[in-house]
Amino acid sequence: MPLYIHALACAFGLGSWVSINGLWVELPLIVNILPEGWDLPSYLTVIIQLANLGPLLVTLAHKFCPGRLRENLVIYTVLSIGVVACVLLALFWRNTTVLLGQPRSTAFFILTLFLALVDCTSSVTFLPFMMQLPAKYITTYFIGEGLSGLVPGLVALAQGVGISKCVNVSHTSDNLTGDTTYEVETQYLSPNFSTEIFFSFLAVMTVISLGAFIILNRVPRTFELSTENLVADTDTVATVCRGLEDVNPSTRIPDEDKKKQIKVLLPVPLHTGYQLAFIYFMVVWVNGATNGLLPSVQTFSCMPYGNMAYHLSAALSSVANPVACIIAMFFPKRSLVFLGFLCLLGSGFGGYNMAMAAMSPCPLLQDTPLGDAIIVLSWVFFTGLLSYVKVMVGVILRDRSHSALVWCGAAVQAGSLLGSVIMFPLINIYHLFQSGDICNTKCPLS
After folding, report:
1. How far apart are CA 386 and CA 350, in angstroms?
2. What is the tens place of the pLDDT at every residue in 123-162?
3. Helix (H/G/I), strand (E/B), else coil: 135
C-alpha cells in the first residue's frame, strides 16, 4: 500500500508544472515559427505571472472564508482545464492575428494563460491536499513535481528540439557581373516528430495526474496518524477540554490548573517569528530565482557555448530537480543554517549563469571545453541545490499546519512574479541581454 500511494503521489505531482515546463523546452522549435521570435520567453514569463490571479483568489478564500473552499473541486477543475487547454494548443498554437499592424500569437498566448493558471494554482492547492497524507508522501510529491520538468525535457531531446548546423550558403549579387558570395548560416534540422504531437503528450501527462488525484481522493484514510497532527491548534485543545468538562461537571478543575494542563498539551512552536520569516524569505528567493530570474536568460547564457551545451544544461538541470528531491527523501536536513548555506551556494551558481548571460554573445571561456563544462555544471548545481532547499522548506512548513502550506504556495508565486517583473523590462525594454548567431558571431580573443 505505501508503494502504491507513493506512485500516486508522484503521478499527482507530475501534473503540477508539466505543461509550462513543456512549453519552455519546446521553445527552440516554437520561436522559429511564431512571429515574436526569441522575445517569446520574456512574454511567457509575464503571461505566467498574470495567472497568479488563481492562487491569489485561493489564498484570499482561505483567509476570509476558512474551511469553506473545497480544494478537491478546485483541483478537479484546474486539471480538467489543463487537459482541454493542451488539446486546443496542439490544434491552434500556430494561429496568429494582426494587432497594431503586427502579427501576434494570440491563440498561443491565450492558451498559455490557461495552462499557467492551472500550474500556478497548483502551488496553493496540491500541497495543502497532500496534508491529508502522512508527511513521508510529500517528498514523493516533490519528486513528481521535479519529474514535471524532467519528462518533457527528455521527450524534447528525443524530438531533437533546436538541433542546428552551420552551412555555407551561396548568394548571387544582382549586378551584371554575377559575383557569387558565400556566407555561413545556421540551419535548424527537422525534428523527429511535430510540436502538435508534443503538446498531445502534455495532455496525456495531465490526464495521468488527474487520474492519480481521483484515486488518491478516494483512497480510504487508513494511514497511521503522525504525532504532529494529534494536536492541530489551540482551538482544538480548548474544545476537547471543554467537552470533557461538560461531560462530568463534578470533576471541574480550577482555572489556573486547567490553564497549566492546556499549556502542557499545546504544541511547542517549531520556530520563532524571525526563523519563520527567514523560511518564507528562502521560499520567495528560491522560486524567484528558479522560476523568474534565471529561466528568462538561459538561452543567453548557454547558446554562445553551442547547441550541445544548451541542451545538456537544459536536460541535466531538469534531472537535478528530481534527484535533489530523492536526496531530500533519504537525507533530510532541517537545519536552517545548513539550508541557508545551500541557498547561498546555489545563488552563487545562479549569479555565474546571470553574468554569462549578460556577457552574451561573448561570455568567458567561449569555444573551450572548460567553458562548456562550467556553464553546464553551473546550471545543474544551481537547480539541484535550490531544489533541495525548496523541498526541505516545504517539509518544514508541512509540519506546522495546513495554512502554512497555503502561504508557502502564495510565497512561491510571489517570488516567481517578482523575478519575472524584474527580468521583463531588462530583456525587452533595456535590451541588456543580446543573443548571437553561433555560426557568425566573432568575439575578440581574451
Report:
1. 10
2. 788 878 887 888 778 878 888 887 888 888 888 878 877 6
3. coil
